[in-house]
Design brief:
This protein is an alpha/beta fold. The chain contains 11 helices and 8 strands. 36% of the residues lie in helices and 19% in strands.
């Protein structure tokens, strides 16, 4: 286990591979651990980092750090500590919101970002997110081993509640329209925790963003459809710096390549 001390508190992270840096940010259910297969796939050509956010996994449970603003600051301090000046962000659920906010605040640092299960409204979130324990949600939604479920159980439910309270102050549907960084939004078509956006959403997105829906995937498309997801991620990472992921809208070609 790797860890650094930020603001006198422990922050847990893991890293695999060599090359251009990619940082994975987990969601409300789980920790860095469910990214492991994806990190292994990416590590062939990239340096893959994943951290536990404040209140999750093996990072400190410090309630003063649970705001979205503090989670964004965690990402910034971590990148500075690692000496990373340019990064690709891959965020899921809560991590997608943090990645979005970080990219808006630091557009010169984020080369591109992939947002998985990004909620376009607060109403898009299932009520179970606040009502159920992290462990119970993991066993319902995360189709992996007991080790992954045990990792999810480490989460402080107060960290989840604080993020939801902060989200109520954001115009989640407007944030993507304000983003200048190239980005790909990915959603599992059977996601039962975050409502799938309208089919015609691409018409409402700026030219630097693109939306794709993964057939047969739930809230964890990187787990449910790992081969398809990893192929899509590889194609996304292979784009030239600054290039819009709308190139990936050749859906028939893309489907043939990932099946």
């Amino acid at each position: 286990m790797s860890a650094i001390i930020l603001d006198s508190q422990v922050v847990h992270y893991e890293v695999l591979g060599r090359g251009r840096p990619v940082l994975f940010l987990h969601g409300w259910v789980g920790s860095w651990r469910y990214w492991v297969p994806t990190m292994q796939s990416v590590s062939i050509g990239y340096r893959a980092y994943s951290i536990d956010l404040w209140g999750f996994g093996d990072t400190a449970k410090a309630s003063s750090k649970y705001s979205l603003e503090q989670q964004v600051e965690l990402v910034d301090e971590f990148l500075n500590e690692m000496g990373i000046a340019k990064v690709v962000l891959i965020g899921h659920g809560l991590g997608a919101i943090i990645a979005m906010l970080y990219a808006q605040k630091h557009p010169l640092i984020v080369d591109r970002l992939m947002l998985i299960g990004y909620p376009f409204t607060n109403a898009a979130l299932d009520a179970r997110l606040e009502a159920e324990t992290p462990d119970a949600l993991a066993r319902l939604l995360l189709p992996q081993s007991d080790a992954d479920h045990n990792e999810a159980a480490k989460a402080d439910q107060e960290a989840i509640k604080t993020s939801l309270q902060n989200m109520a102050e954001l115009e989640l549907n407007e944030l993507p329209k304000q983003l200048k960084t190239p980005g790909l939004l990915v959603h599992g078509e059977n996601d039962s925790l975050v409502q799938v956006p309208a089919v015609g959403i691409n018409g409402a997105l700026p030219g630097n963003l693109h939306f794709l829906q993964l057939e047969g995937a739930g809230h964890f498309p990187m787990v449910d459809k790992s081969n398809k997801f990893n192929r899509l991620l590889a194609d996304f990472l292979a784009l030239e710096s600054g290039q819009s992921p709308q190139r990936l809208q050749l859906k028939e070609e893309w489907k043939r390549r990932v099946r």
